[in-house]
Structure formats: structure tokens, C-alpha cells
Amino acid sequence: MKRIKHYALYGGEDSGNQKWFQKLLSGDAEAILPNLNSTNGVVFSEAVLDKFIEEDYKHGRSKIAIFKCRSLRTFSSGEKRKALLNFLLKQNPEFLILDSPFDNLDKESVAELKIRLQKVSETIQIIQIFKRKEDILPFIDEILLMKGGKVQKTITLDEFLAEKPSEERFPKIKSIPEAPSEFENILEVLVKLEKVSVNYEERPILANISWEIKKGQFWKLTGPNGSGKTTILSMIYGDNPKAYGENVYLFGNKKGSGESVWEIKKKIGYFSPALTELFNRRNTVLEMVVSGLMDSIGLYQRPGFKQLALAKEWIKTLQLEHQEKKVFLDLPLLQQRMLLIARAMIKHPPLLILDEPTSALDDKSALKFTNLINIISAETETAVVYVSHRKEKGLKPEFEFKLIPSENGSVGKVSVSS
Ligand SMILES: Nc1ncnc2c1ncn2[C@@H]1O[C@H](COP(=O)(O)OP(=O)(O)OP(=O)(O)O)[C@@H](O)[C@H]1O
Question: Residue 230 C-alpha to ligand 1 middle, in angstroms?
């Protein structure tokens, strides 16, 4: 039997082919690769997954999940991807387009998915769009170099990997705008979890978790898919009812007593890539950043002169002053993410939570992003909790809180970051 050839395309922000990739991912494979017949292919991407999650939400049951009665939204990243891949393969496609398939996956799940895809590649053609070099599948035969939506040159994987990375230089951010006012009466210990345990449907998820986050500390929260990272974050930031019977103390008060969820949220800057989707109006960059002072997603109040000046200072710090009047959603992904960090940080909250903030970014963009987080941590009093699966080159957390799964739920291990 003739061996199938597999291809990869670089999809980073600097690739200049975003528009064409959108065509490819929306199912029009022929637009870029004329010898593919679009009707015979399927797309594996975050956007496709989101579409299923949305449909689930509407219908109250899942079309692709194994546990049909449970919403896909509550699945861990690894579980969601497995379910999507199984669903797509059942359609017997001739080719499979993979868009950054390893984002948000832990090491074991990446290894597992790679083995699965290797097997799939024996019978189905694979076209991988990658943003991180480390993600390229080992069985890829050729890298397609594109320009203006056309394949300009084809090189082998070995040739591509042998290319020396160009020295990543970019103007570094050196300082962070001052806080508009100080948060009063902030205690040394911002968050305290004391022997917190959580079960879902009698399945233990977290077992006796104790963790203290103090002023100004920089933490990385790690653990394999499904180990309970999002669950912990939802105890701190969200309104997970599971937090109430447990010893969860936020800013000195036991959760559920004292401050309302709303009051607590005012003291926490939060970022997750999903946040971008909340901005569906035509807000400009300036409006979006200044809205961080109003604790609202859009802009419902007219900001004052001082507030606008501070938002402009943040935009300038990010070297994006030329974008100030543009519509936020029209900007490239990295710029959107940096601006959302500015929005979360504009008040210098005591705590900043970042949930997988570099997913879908290319190597260079991720480096720029982590540089911003390092500066924020070094220059402000804000404590940072950064959730990520990747060993982010350049990120400088002080401590790691690692969730280690066990039969009785995950236990936590604290270490000083190397
Ligand atoms: N509402 C829910 N009902 C039942 N099970 C749930 C619910 N929410 C989460 N879970 C389960 O709890 C476990 C922990 O999920 P959680 O999302 O906290 O893990 P995670 O470490 O953040 O995973 P990932 O890295 O994949 O995002 C998973 O097995 C998940 O399926």
C-alpha cells in the first residue's frame, strides 16, 4: 500500500497566513491545498470543541462525550480532546486537519495523543497547523512554507528542525504603571486552603489540600489533566459551591462568610483565554483597558480623565499606543492577551490568576507574554498564580504547587521553582 504523506504548516502570528488558515479551519481545505476534497475531511481544533460545548449547553446533553448526561464543559482538557478525536474518527474521514492539538494537555496526555495520531496516520492523511516547534508530530513528512495563501516551498521536517532559530529579540517592557489607589487592609496571607477536599459524584478530586498564597508571591500551579487545577481556582475565584463547607479563607475571611463573591472578585485580577470571547461588542482597546477600573466587561460608565490617562499609560507600556482606537477583537491574539492582562492589572489587585494564558500562542509570542508577567511580578505587590502545562521558557515563578493525583484525590506538593 502506498504510504500516505503528512504535512505541517506554521501557524504563528508572524506567519502572515492567518486569513488562509481560517479558511482551512472552517472546512475549506481546497483553498490552500487544491488536491484535497474538502467534503472528505474533518477539523480538530479548539473552535470545533467550543462549538460542541455550546451545543451541549443548549441541548443539556452531549453529542460527543462518553458520559452523555454530563456537560462537556465540566470535562478536563484531556478528556474533551479524547472525546472530540473519537467522534471525528467515527466519520471515517480521508484527512484530518489538526490545529495546535496539544495546547492545554499535560505531558502524559500529549504522549498518549501522539501515539494515537501515529496510528491514525497509517490510514488517514494528517495536516497539522503548529505554533510551537516542540509540537510537530514526528511522522510529518514535509513542512509547507506559505505566502499569500499559496504554498511557496516545501521542506522536509529535518531541514526545518535544523534551521537555527533566529535570536528572539524584542523591546522589553521595563516598568509597570503605578496603582491608582491602594487596596486597604490587605493581610499578608491572601489565600489559605486548609485540608480542602472535593468530590464530584462521589469521585474524590482534591484530597486534603493545604496551600497559602502570600502577598507578592509568584506561583506556578501544575498537575496533569483532570488533577483539579481548575477546581482549585474555582474555589478561590469562582463561586463553586463546593468551597462553602471547606476551610477556604480569602483575604482573611472564610469563604461564604464576610465578603460577597463580588467583593472578593474586586481584589482578584483574572485571565483565561476564554475571557476574550466575552468581548463581543465593538469596544475599542482604550475602552477595554479602562473597563478594568469599573469591574465590568464592557464600558457602562463614562470614565474620568484620570482613569483614561492611566489606561493610556498601560497601553503605551505595552507599546500598543498605535492600536488605542482600534476595535479590541480585531487585534492579533498576543496583543489581545497583553491588553487583557493590562485590564486585569490596572488596579494592581492583590492577586492575579492566569489560567493557561499562553495557549494558542506561538513560541515568540509566548516569550513576550511571559516577559510581561515576570515584570508584573517583580515590580508590583501583586501575587501571581500561573497555571500552565508547558515548561514556559523564560517564566520565572518562585514556587510551584503541584497536584499529584491518587486514588483518594489529588494531593498538593509545594516546591521552590528551579
Ligand atoms: N461539575 C462537575 N461534575 C463532575 N465532574 C467534574 C465537574 N467538574 C470537574 N469535574 C471532574 O473533576 C476532575 C478535575 O477537573 P479540573 O477541570 O479541575 O482538572 P484540571 O486539572 O483543571 O484539568 P485540565 O488540565 O485538563 O484543565 C476532572 O476529572 C473533571 O472531569
Answer: 7
Q: Which domains does the chain have, with CATH numbers?
A: 7-162 (3.40.50.300), 189-416 (3.40.50.300)
Q: How many CA atoms lie within 13 A of 301 on its CB side?
A: 12
| Residue 121: closest CA among 96, 147, 150 | 96
What digits encode the pLDDT tens for the residues 101-124? 888 888 888 888 899 999 999 999
Helix axes 305-317, 333-345, angle to 10 degrees: 130
Return the closest-CA partner of residue 249 out of 195, 322, 290, 173.
195
ipTM over 0.95: yes
Please give the DSSP secondary-structure letter assigned to residue 410.
B
For residue 136 the three cell numbers come to 510537530
Q: What is the pTM of this model?
A: 0.86
Q: For 193-217, what is each residue's pLDDT tens digit?
A: 999 999 988 889 999 999 999 999 9
- Ligand 1 atom with the shortest distance to the CA of 234: 18
Rounded-to-10 torsion of CA 356, 359, 365, 367: 40
| Mutation pick for ligand 1 pocket among 53, 227, 390 (CB with most ligand atoms within 8 Å) | 227
Pairwise CA distance, residues 130 & 133, whole Å: 7
